[in-house]
Design brief:
The chain is an alpha/beta fold and 299 residues long.
Length: 299
């Protein structure tokens, strides 16, 4: 798609925001050194991502020790970008220290719908402070899920308005799916109805494994969001009946998804990021290391 001048200017403004955040982090680290604080520099990662658009959804790492231990594991896996889950219980200043120490950038953050409804200004301020310009609605609790086509359209309108408000803050809003949004109403899924009603400001983050679990073809489904595909969650499903202790998920390339077909379709649809995720990993660091290697070899 041809980008218009307004879109190019918005991208330039967002890039400027990231540069400003990086400068802040450098300033923080310099101050710490001047005060005699010691920051342990992590070892150079052995699995470099070579600037490919690969990130980790930090929900994958939630049981892997402290926030710092999680960031260190991502660094060891050779990945340089993360999608956070809220603020990880740390201040913006501490987050910037960790990002600097482990050579990471935040490319998006999962923030609950209720939090965005109640006071999005705090979310915006925090994320601007740490260099992030994209907020993602990650999940709808059961009582918040529409049960009709009109309900999905109404939710879409609400998210569209929310996205337009964020756009004025030089930020973007995306929506992440599970399988329940694949329910069909006529010739469209609930997710499509939501996006049709939302308008172009709302971006999509398509979880490929959940699409496949709903019985749809991920390679075909991403084409329905051409031009609005911010990212995909690169996640694999184990063969039916296997990996039950991990919720039926497995490491990238070890499952049933047809990546030879999916990855070219995702690229054609314009995805900016491939975000590694596993909902219930027994060994989170191994999952992201294997996932990074798989994507490096196949992108």
């Amino acid at each position: 798609m041809t980008r218009n001048k307004e879109g190019e200017l918005q991208d330039m403004e967002r890039e400027s925001l990231k540069i400003t955040s990086v400068m802040k982090r450098v300033s923080i680290m310099a101050s710490m050194l001047m005060m005699g604080s010691v920051v342990t520099t992590p070892a150079i990662a052995t699995e470099e991502s070579q600037d490919l658009p690969i990130a980790v959804q930090m929900y994958t790492m939630r049981d892997h020790g402290s926030t710092e231990e999680q960031f260190a594991a991502v660094n060891r896996a050779g990945i340089k970008a993360i999608e956070t889950v809220g603020d990880h219980g740390v201040s913006a200043e501490r987050m910037n220290e960790l990002l600097e120490a482990y050579n990471l950038d935040i490319i998006a953050s999962h923030v609950g719908l209720d939090e965005m409804r109640s006071d999005s200004s705090e979310v915006v301020d925090f994320n601007k402070s740490v260099g992030n310009d994209t907020i993602v609605i990650p999940y709808l609790e059961e009582d918040a899920r529409p049960d009709s086509a009109s309900g999905w359209k109404e939710l879409g309108k609400e998210l569209g308005s929310m996205a337009e408000k964020l756009d004025k803050e030089d930020m973007a809003l995306a929506y992440h799916n599970h399988d329940f949004e694949m329910q069909e109403y006529g010739d469209k899924t609930a997710l499509e109805l939501l996006f049709d009603a939302a308008g172009p400001a709302l971006k999509s983050e398509i979880d490929l494994a959940w699409v496949e679990r709903a019985g749809l073809d991920p390679a075909e489904y991403v084409t329905r969001f051409d031009g609005r595909l911010f990212a995909v969650h690169a996640k694999d499903n184990a063969p039916q009946g296997e990996a039950t202790e991990e919720g039926g998920f497995t490491s990238l390339g070890n499952g049933v998804l047809d990546w030879e077909t999916i990855l070219p379709a995702v690229e054609e649809a314009g995805a900016k990021w491939y975000i590694i995720e596993h909902d219930h990993p027994l060994d989170p660091e191994d999952v992201i290391t294997v996932g990074n290697r798989f994507l490096k070899n196949n992108l």
